[in-house]
From TrEMBL:
Belongs to the CmpA/NrtA family. It is found in: Endomembrane system. PANTHER family: ALIPHATIC SULFONATES-BINDING PROTEIN-RELATED, BLL4572 PROTEIN. Residues 1-26 form the signal peptide. PROSITE patterns: TAT. This is ABC transporter substrate-binding protein. SUPFAM superfamilies: Periplasmic binding protein-like II. Keywords: Cell inner membrane, Cell membrane, Membrane, Signal, Transport. It comes from the Bacteria. GO terms for cellular component: endomembrane system. InterPro entries: NrtA/CpmA_ABC-bd_dom, TAT_signal.
Amino acid sequence: MYTNRRDFLKLLSLFTVAGSAPLLQAQENKRAIDSNAPLRIGYLPITDATPLLVAHAKGLFEKQGIAVEKPVMFRSWAQLVEAFLSGNVNVVHLLSPMSLWAKYGSNAPVKVVMWNHLAGSALTVRPDINSVAELGGKTVAIPFWYSIHNIVLQQLLRANNLSVTEKEPQANEVKLTVMPPSDMVAALASGNIAGFIVAEPFNALAEAKNVGKVLRFSGDVWRNHACCLTLMHEQDVNERPEWVQKVVNALTEAQVFTLNDRLETAKILSRGNGYTPHDQKVLEAVLAPTEQQWANYIKTGAIQHPEWHQERIGFQPYPFDSYMEKLVEVLKETHISGNNAFLAKLDPSQVARDLNAPQFVKKAVEQGGWLETFNLQNGWTRVEEIAI
Protein backbone atom coordinates (compact mmCIF):
# COMPACT_ATOMS: atom_id res chain seq x y z
CA MET A 1 0.00 0.00 0.00
CA TYR A 2 2.89 2.33 -0.63
CA THR A 3 1.54 4.97 -2.99
CA ASN A 4 5.06 5.56 -4.24
CA ARG A 5 8.69 5.01 -3.34
CA ARG A 6 8.68 8.24 -1.34
CA ASP A 7 6.02 6.75 0.94
CA PHE A 8 8.16 3.64 1.46
CA LEU A 9 11.26 5.70 2.27
CA LYS A 10 9.18 7.76 4.66
CA LEU A 11 8.31 4.62 6.62
CA LEU A 12 11.98 3.70 6.79
CA SER A 13 12.78 7.12 8.26
CA LEU A 14 9.96 6.89 10.83
CA PHE A 15 11.64 3.87 12.39
CA THR A 16 14.78 5.78 13.29
CA VAL A 17 15.34 7.84 16.41
CA ALA A 18 15.87 10.99 14.35
CA GLY A 19 12.79 10.39 12.21
CA SER A 20 10.46 9.56 15.09
CA ALA A 21 11.59 12.25 17.55
CA PRO A 22 9.45 15.14 16.22
CA LEU A 23 6.40 12.87 16.02
CA LEU A 24 6.85 11.63 19.57
CA GLN A 25 7.22 15.22 20.72
CA ALA A 26 3.97 16.07 18.93
CA GLN A 27 2.32 13.21 20.81
CA GLU A 28 3.57 14.65 24.12
CA ASN A 29 2.18 18.05 23.22
CA LYS A 30 -1.23 16.61 22.39
CA ARG A 31 -1.26 14.61 25.62
CA ALA A 32 -0.51 17.75 27.65
CA ILE A 33 -3.56 19.42 26.10
CA ASP A 34 -5.90 16.40 26.35
CA SER A 35 -4.69 13.67 28.69
CA ASN A 36 -8.06 11.93 28.42
CA ALA A 37 -8.36 11.88 24.64
CA PRO A 38 -11.18 9.72 23.22
CA LEU A 39 -10.43 6.46 21.47
CA ARG A 40 -9.06 7.16 17.98
CA ILE A 41 -8.51 4.08 15.84
CA GLY A 42 -6.22 3.92 12.83
CA TYR A 43 -6.33 0.99 10.40
CA LEU A 44 -5.56 -0.31 6.93
CA PRO A 45 -8.42 -1.84 4.88
CA ILE A 46 -7.38 -5.46 5.36
CA THR A 47 -8.97 -8.27 7.37
CA ASP A 48 -6.23 -7.83 10.00
CA ALA A 49 -8.25 -4.86 11.29
CA THR A 50 -11.39 -6.93 11.88
CA PRO A 51 -11.71 -6.62 15.70
CA LEU A 52 -11.14 -2.86 15.66
CA LEU A 53 -13.86 -2.35 13.05
CA VAL A 54 -16.36 -4.86 14.46
CA ALA A 55 -16.05 -3.33 17.93
CA HIS A 56 -16.89 0.07 16.47
CA ALA A 57 -19.71 -1.19 14.25
CA LYS A 58 -21.41 -3.12 17.06
CA GLY A 59 -21.16 -0.33 19.64
CA LEU A 60 -18.89 -2.36 21.94
CA PHE A 61 -16.79 0.63 22.95
CA GLU A 62 -19.89 2.57 23.98
CA LYS A 63 -21.01 -0.52 25.89
CA GLN A 64 -17.83 -0.14 27.95
CA GLY A 65 -18.47 3.58 28.44
CA ILE A 66 -15.69 4.59 26.05
CA ALA A 67 -15.97 7.68 23.87
CA VAL A 68 -14.82 6.70 20.38
CA GLU A 69 -14.44 8.51 17.09
CA LYS A 70 -15.05 6.92 13.70
CA PRO A 71 -12.02 4.76 12.79
CA VAL A 72 -9.68 6.43 10.31
CA MET A 73 -8.63 4.38 7.28
CA PHE A 74 -5.07 4.87 6.05
CA ARG A 75 -3.69 3.80 2.68
CA SER A 76 -0.16 2.90 3.78
CA TRP A 77 1.77 1.66 6.77
CA ALA A 78 3.79 4.89 6.65
CA GLN A 79 0.66 7.01 7.09
CA LEU A 80 -0.64 4.75 9.86
CA VAL A 81 2.65 4.71 11.78
CA GLU A 82 3.06 8.48 11.46
CA ALA A 83 -0.46 9.07 12.79
CA PHE A 84 0.14 6.72 15.73
CA LEU A 85 3.56 8.04 16.74
CA SER A 86 2.31 11.63 16.58
CA GLY A 87 -0.76 10.84 18.69
CA ASN A 88 -3.38 11.56 16.02
CA VAL A 89 -4.66 8.02 16.68
CA ASN A 90 -4.09 6.05 19.86
CA VAL A 91 -4.94 2.47 18.88
CA VAL A 92 -3.70 0.72 15.73
CA HIS A 93 -3.06 -2.71 14.32
CA LEU A 94 0.54 -3.21 13.20
CA LEU A 95 2.50 -6.06 11.62
CA SER A 96 4.05 -8.00 14.51
CA PRO A 97 7.70 -7.57 13.38
CA MET A 98 6.99 -3.88 12.78
CA SER A 99 6.18 -3.49 16.49
CA LEU A 100 9.77 -4.55 17.23
CA TRP A 101 11.08 -2.00 14.79
CA ALA A 102 8.96 0.74 16.34
CA LYS A 103 10.14 -0.12 19.85
CA TYR A 104 13.82 -0.65 19.18
CA GLY A 105 14.45 1.15 15.89
CA SER A 106 12.76 4.43 16.81
CA ASN A 107 12.59 4.11 20.61
CA ALA A 108 8.83 4.60 20.44
CA PRO A 109 7.09 3.93 23.81
CA VAL A 110 4.59 1.34 22.57
CA LYS A 111 2.86 -1.66 24.11
CA VAL A 112 1.23 -4.72 22.56
CA VAL A 113 -2.02 -5.11 24.47
CA MET A 114 -3.40 -8.03 22.46
CA TRP A 115 -3.34 -9.90 19.17
CA ASN A 116 -5.69 -8.82 16.41
CA HIS A 117 -6.01 -12.19 14.71
CA LEU A 118 -4.32 -15.48 13.78
CA ALA A 119 -2.96 -16.46 10.34
CA GLY A 120 -4.99 -14.61 7.67
CA SER A 121 -2.23 -14.58 5.03
CA ALA A 122 -1.12 -16.76 2.14
CA LEU A 123 1.44 -17.23 -0.61
CA THR A 124 -0.45 -16.76 -3.88
CA VAL A 125 1.13 -17.55 -7.25
CA ARG A 126 0.34 -17.63 -10.96
CA PRO A 127 -1.94 -20.53 -11.94
CA ASP A 128 0.88 -22.29 -13.82
CA ILE A 129 3.16 -22.51 -10.76
CA ASN A 130 2.66 -25.65 -8.68
CA SER A 131 5.47 -25.63 -6.12
CA VAL A 132 7.73 -23.31 -4.16
CA ALA A 133 10.70 -24.73 -6.07
CA GLU A 134 9.24 -23.32 -9.31
CA LEU A 135 9.69 -19.79 -7.94
CA GLY A 136 13.44 -20.02 -8.63
CA GLY A 137 14.54 -17.25 -10.99
CA LYS A 138 11.29 -15.33 -10.43
CA THR A 139 10.06 -12.32 -8.46
CA VAL A 140 7.74 -12.48 -5.44
CA ALA A 141 6.17 -9.44 -3.76
CA ILE A 142 6.03 -8.88 -0.01
CA PRO A 143 4.18 -6.07 1.83
CA PHE A 144 7.19 -5.08 3.91
CA TRP A 145 10.54 -6.46 5.11
CA TYR A 146 9.40 -6.40 8.74
CA SER A 147 6.43 -8.71 8.27
CA ILE A 148 5.46 -12.27 9.11
CA HIS A 149 4.98 -12.64 5.35
CA ASN A 150 8.67 -12.09 4.66
CA ILE A 151 9.61 -14.50 7.46
CA VAL A 152 7.32 -17.32 6.34
CA LEU A 153 8.25 -16.90 2.67
CA GLN A 154 11.96 -17.13 3.42
CA GLN A 155 11.38 -20.23 5.55
CA LEU A 156 9.68 -21.85 2.55
CA LEU A 157 12.39 -20.73 0.12
CA ARG A 158 15.23 -22.05 2.29
CA ALA A 159 13.48 -25.41 2.61
CA ASN A 160 13.52 -25.57 -1.19
CA ASN A 161 17.19 -24.57 -1.50
CA LEU A 162 16.37 -21.12 -2.83
CA SER A 163 18.14 -17.98 -1.66
CA VAL A 164 16.88 -14.41 -1.60
CA THR A 165 18.07 -11.47 -3.66
CA GLU A 166 16.98 -7.91 -4.35
CA LYS A 167 18.59 -7.98 -7.82
CA GLU A 168 17.79 -9.91 -10.97
CA PRO A 169 17.55 -13.52 -9.75
CA GLN A 170 19.59 -16.50 -10.85
CA ALA A 171 17.91 -19.89 -11.23
CA ASN A 172 18.47 -20.73 -7.56
CA GLU A 173 17.33 -17.32 -6.31
CA VAL A 174 14.05 -15.49 -5.77
CA LYS A 175 13.89 -11.73 -6.05
CA LEU A 176 11.84 -10.13 -3.27
CA THR A 177 10.22 -6.78 -3.93
CA VAL A 178 8.20 -4.61 -1.56
CA MET A 179 4.84 -3.75 -3.09
CA PRO A 180 1.55 -2.23 -1.94
CA PRO A 181 -0.92 -5.09 -1.29
CA SER A 182 -3.52 -3.24 -3.34
CA ASP A 183 -1.17 -3.45 -6.36
CA MET A 184 -0.32 -7.13 -6.00
CA VAL A 185 -3.28 -8.71 -7.76
CA ALA A 186 -2.84 -6.51 -10.85
CA ALA A 187 0.92 -7.16 -10.87
CA LEU A 188 0.28 -10.90 -10.76
CA ALA A 189 -2.29 -10.69 -13.54
CA SER A 190 0.08 -8.70 -15.77
CA GLY A 191 2.98 -11.08 -15.17
CA ASN A 192 5.18 -8.51 -13.45
CA ILE A 193 5.52 -10.88 -10.49
CA ALA A 194 5.22 -14.65 -10.16
CA GLY A 195 3.56 -14.48 -6.77
CA PHE A 196 2.95 -12.55 -3.59
CA ILE A 197 2.55 -13.24 0.10
CA VAL A 198 0.23 -10.89 1.95
CA ALA A 199 -2.74 -10.47 4.24
CA GLU A 200 -6.27 -11.18 3.13
CA PRO A 201 -8.42 -10.46 1.27
CA PHE A 202 -5.93 -10.01 -1.60
CA ASN A 203 -5.27 -13.74 -1.89
CA ALA A 204 -9.00 -14.40 -2.08
CA LEU A 205 -9.35 -11.56 -4.59
CA ALA A 206 -6.73 -13.14 -6.87
CA GLU A 207 -8.67 -16.39 -6.68
CA ALA A 208 -11.97 -14.66 -7.44
CA LYS A 209 -10.44 -13.00 -10.49
CA ASN A 210 -8.84 -16.31 -11.59
CA VAL A 211 -5.39 -14.72 -11.85
CA GLY A 212 -3.77 -16.61 -8.99
CA LYS A 213 -4.02 -19.57 -6.64
CA VAL A 214 -3.02 -20.12 -3.03
CA LEU A 215 0.17 -22.17 -2.95
CA ARG A 216 0.45 -22.23 0.86
CA PHE A 217 -1.28 -20.63 3.82
CA SER A 218 1.03 -18.90 6.30
CA GLY A 219 -0.81 -20.47 9.23
CA ASP A 220 0.04 -23.88 7.76
CA VAL A 221 3.74 -23.06 8.15
CA TRP A 222 3.71 -21.30 11.54
CA ARG A 223 0.82 -22.70 13.51
CA ASN A 224 -1.57 -20.07 14.87
CA HIS A 225 0.88 -17.25 14.28
CA ALA A 226 -0.12 -13.68 14.96
CA CYS A 227 0.09 -11.35 11.98
CA CYS A 228 -1.08 -7.99 13.29
CA LEU A 229 -0.94 -6.88 16.91
CA THR A 230 -2.97 -4.20 18.67
CA LEU A 231 -0.65 -1.39 19.74
CA MET A 232 -1.28 1.39 22.24
CA HIS A 233 0.91 4.13 23.68
CA GLU A 234 2.84 3.13 26.78
CA GLN A 235 1.67 6.26 28.59
CA ASP A 236 -1.96 5.24 28.16
CA VAL A 237 -1.12 1.80 29.55
CA ASN A 238 0.64 3.33 32.56
CA GLU A 239 -1.54 6.38 33.21
CA ARG A 240 -5.00 5.26 31.99
CA PRO A 241 -5.13 1.54 32.85
CA GLU A 242 -8.91 1.54 33.44
CA TRP A 243 -9.46 3.13 30.02
CA VAL A 244 -7.12 0.63 28.39
CA GLN A 245 -8.95 -2.23 30.11
CA LYS A 246 -12.28 -1.06 28.70
CA VAL A 247 -10.83 -0.74 25.18
CA VAL A 248 -9.39 -4.26 25.40
CA ASN A 249 -12.70 -5.59 26.78
CA ALA A 250 -14.48 -4.25 23.70
CA LEU A 251 -11.90 -5.62 21.26
CA THR A 252 -11.96 -9.02 22.93
CA GLU A 253 -15.76 -9.14 22.71
CA ALA A 254 -15.45 -8.17 19.03
CA GLN A 255 -13.33 -11.27 18.44
CA VAL A 256 -15.98 -13.38 20.17
CA PHE A 257 -18.64 -11.86 17.92
CA THR A 258 -16.55 -12.60 14.83
CA LEU A 259 -16.03 -16.22 15.82
CA ASN A 260 -19.77 -16.62 16.38
CA ASP A 261 -20.94 -14.85 13.20
CA ARG A 262 -18.36 -14.81 10.45
CA LEU A 263 -20.85 -14.06 7.67
CA GLU A 264 -22.19 -11.00 9.47
CA THR A 265 -18.61 -9.90 10.04
CA ALA A 266 -17.94 -10.10 6.31
CA LYS A 267 -21.01 -7.95 5.72
CA ILE A 268 -19.84 -5.38 8.30
CA LEU A 269 -16.42 -5.07 6.69
CA SER A 270 -17.61 -5.05 3.08
CA ARG A 271 -17.93 -2.23 0.60
CA GLY A 272 -20.89 0.01 1.34
CA ASN A 273 -20.51 0.04 5.10
CA GLY A 274 -17.67 2.52 5.08
CA TYR A 275 -14.90 0.35 6.50
CA THR A 276 -13.19 -1.35 3.53
CA PRO A 277 -13.56 -1.29 -0.27
CA HIS A 278 -13.81 -5.07 -0.55
CA ASP A 279 -16.61 -7.22 -1.97
CA GLN A 280 -18.64 -9.15 0.58
CA LYS A 281 -18.26 -12.47 -1.26
CA VAL A 282 -14.47 -12.13 -1.28
CA LEU A 283 -14.49 -11.42 2.45
CA GLU A 284 -16.77 -14.42 3.04
CA ALA A 285 -14.22 -16.64 1.29
CA VAL A 286 -11.68 -15.49 3.89
CA LEU A 287 -13.82 -15.42 7.02
CA ALA A 288 -16.11 -18.35 6.27
CA PRO A 289 -14.70 -20.70 3.59
CA THR A 290 -16.86 -23.71 2.79
CA GLU A 291 -15.89 -27.27 3.68
CA GLN A 292 -15.45 -27.97 -0.03
CA GLN A 293 -13.02 -25.09 -0.42
CA TRP A 294 -11.04 -26.35 2.54
CA ALA A 295 -10.97 -29.89 1.13
CA ASN A 296 -9.63 -28.50 -2.14
CA TYR A 297 -6.83 -26.68 -0.33
CA ILE A 298 -5.82 -29.94 1.35
CA LYS A 299 -5.90 -31.70 -2.01
CA THR A 300 -3.71 -29.09 -3.73
CA GLY A 301 -1.21 -28.94 -0.86
CA ALA A 302 -2.00 -25.36 0.16
CA ILE A 303 -2.74 -27.04 3.49
CA GLN A 304 -0.20 -29.70 4.45
CA HIS A 305 -1.06 -29.91 8.14
CA PRO A 306 -4.83 -30.55 8.25
CA GLU A 307 -4.40 -31.97 11.76
CA TRP A 308 -3.67 -28.42 12.93
CA HIS A 309 -7.26 -27.46 12.07
CA GLN A 310 -6.13 -24.01 11.00
CA GLU A 311 -8.65 -21.40 9.90
CA ARG A 312 -8.04 -19.14 6.95
CA ILE A 313 -8.21 -16.34 9.49
CA GLY A 314 -8.59 -17.06 13.20
CA PHE A 315 -9.12 -14.99 16.30
CA GLN A 316 -7.42 -15.34 19.67
CA PRO A 317 -6.40 -12.18 21.53
CA TYR A 318 -3.83 -13.32 24.11
CA PRO A 319 -0.26 -12.22 23.22
CA PHE A 320 1.92 -15.24 24.00
CA ASP A 321 5.48 -14.42 25.04
CA SER A 322 6.68 -17.54 23.21
CA TYR A 323 5.56 -16.06 19.90
CA MET A 324 7.40 -12.78 20.48
CA GLU A 325 10.53 -14.67 21.53
CA LYS A 326 10.41 -16.88 18.43
CA LEU A 327 9.74 -13.85 16.28
CA VAL A 328 12.99 -12.24 17.42
CA GLU A 329 14.90 -15.47 16.77
CA VAL A 330 13.63 -15.96 13.21
CA LEU A 331 14.00 -12.29 12.30
CA LYS A 332 17.71 -12.59 13.03
CA GLU A 333 18.02 -15.26 10.33
CA THR A 334 15.75 -13.52 7.81
CA HIS A 335 17.06 -11.28 5.03
CA ILE A 336 15.86 -7.75 5.76
CA SER A 337 16.78 -4.80 3.60
CA GLY A 338 18.11 -1.60 5.13
CA ASN A 339 19.36 -0.84 8.63
CA ASN A 340 18.63 -3.82 10.86
CA ALA A 341 21.66 -3.75 13.16
CA PHE A 342 19.45 -3.37 16.24
CA LEU A 343 18.11 -6.91 15.76
CA ALA A 344 21.44 -8.53 16.66
CA LYS A 345 21.36 -6.93 20.12
CA LEU A 346 17.86 -8.06 21.04
CA ASP A 347 17.29 -10.66 23.73
CA PRO A 348 14.09 -12.59 22.88
CA SER A 349 12.77 -12.99 26.42
CA GLN A 350 13.54 -9.37 27.28
CA VAL A 351 11.68 -8.19 24.17
CA ALA A 352 8.60 -10.16 25.18
CA ARG A 353 8.66 -8.58 28.63
CA ASP A 354 9.24 -5.09 27.20
CA LEU A 355 6.58 -5.15 24.51
CA ASN A 356 3.74 -7.34 25.73
CA ALA A 357 1.19 -6.04 28.23
CA PRO A 358 -1.05 -9.12 28.52
CA GLN A 359 -2.74 -8.29 31.82
CA PHE A 360 -5.66 -6.47 30.19
CA VAL A 361 -6.69 -9.16 27.74
CA LYS A 362 -6.17 -11.89 30.35
CA LYS A 363 -8.66 -10.11 32.59
CA ALA A 364 -11.07 -9.54 29.69
CA VAL A 365 -11.03 -13.23 28.72
CA GLU A 366 -11.45 -14.46 32.29
CA GLN A 367 -14.24 -12.04 33.19
CA GLY A 368 -16.03 -12.74 29.90
CA GLY A 369 -15.87 -16.49 30.48
CA TRP A 370 -14.14 -16.98 27.13
CA LEU A 371 -11.25 -19.30 27.99
CA GLU A 372 -12.73 -22.16 25.95
CA THR A 373 -13.93 -19.80 23.21
CA PHE A 374 -10.28 -18.97 22.51
CA ASN A 375 -8.86 -22.42 23.40
CA LEU A 376 -7.04 -20.95 26.38
CA GLN A 377 -8.36 -23.39 28.96
CA ASN A 378 -4.91 -25.02 29.22
CA GLY A 379 -3.18 -21.86 30.40
CA TRP A 380 -1.28 -18.81 29.21
CA THR A 381 1.76 -20.47 27.66
CA ARG A 382 2.30 -22.45 24.49
CA VAL A 383 5.05 -23.99 22.34
CA GLU A 384 5.60 -22.46 18.89
CA GLU A 385 5.35 -24.85 15.94
CA ILE A 386 6.94 -24.10 12.57
CA ALA A 387 6.74 -26.91 10.02
CA ILE A 388 7.50 -26.45 6.33
